[in-house]
Amino acid sequence: MTMSRAHNSIRPPRSDEDLARMVVSVAKATQVDGIICITETGLLAQHLSRLAGHFRVIAATTNRATFDTLTKAGLEVIRLPLRTADKYTQIRHAISVVLQSSRVSIGDLVVCAIGHDVYQEEGNLVVLTEMEARTEKLAVSDLLKLTDGIQPKVLEVAVLVACKIGRAARRGKRIGAIFMLGDSLNVLDGSKQLIPNPFQGHDKANRMLTNPDIHDALVELAKLDGAFVLRGDGFIQAAGVFLTSPPSETELVSGLGARHAAAAAATRRTTATAIVVSATDGNVRAFSGGKMVLQIDPDVAHGHIGMNG
Question: Looking at the 3D structure of the chain, how many domains does it have?
């Protein structure tokens, strides 16, 4: 059962308190085993905690400050490592993380709510679902619509290396990176080599992203300007590539800079997926079709979406 406010509805979104009352009503009517609340500000979780009675409330948030505030208030809360492109995918992600935490069990009936503070343009969403084994190990690749030719394992490793670079950026090293995955010939066709390609002439094993022996070298190479361009199977075509795609037609979140604009524009021009590490905040973001479709906190364990908190 899913309830969602229509996007074009004239009626304003329910307040956090009104949404909490509705969620508790659903919980009472169906006698669920728990309530999962996805929140950005923490207000929905606080209202649910007050109104839920004997029902267990588990708050889930990507916001570090909200996680700390709710924890100090004595609420049961989990940090989500990922922020996905839409509320429906974020619900799947939250269910997976909570299930892996062993705070609920397979077969439990839960009501999961996401307030409009998380996706303001999309409104609220309430889902009643039974916890299923297939949602427990939800990979990053399950949350992205990959273009043909990009192997899920390559995406997973790209995110792993990007998070390693992101953690280095948060430790004060002003480095960022772009990994362009798939459609590599078209990506290169619209780009230019800034420096001699450091991978030119190396044997195939030392040009495969999936080879863990080269990951430290990739972190070092991230200090150079330009992007890594890879085939869908993880073969690194080049590093130090300047993406020349015009950024004017892309839709960027406010505050993102030239690196993100260039990567987003390249994914609009080609069928590639871009994994971008911000030198400013260390966050890892994925772009597809010119839009940001995923944001990852490198300090929160994931991979096959691991756990924290």
Answer: 2
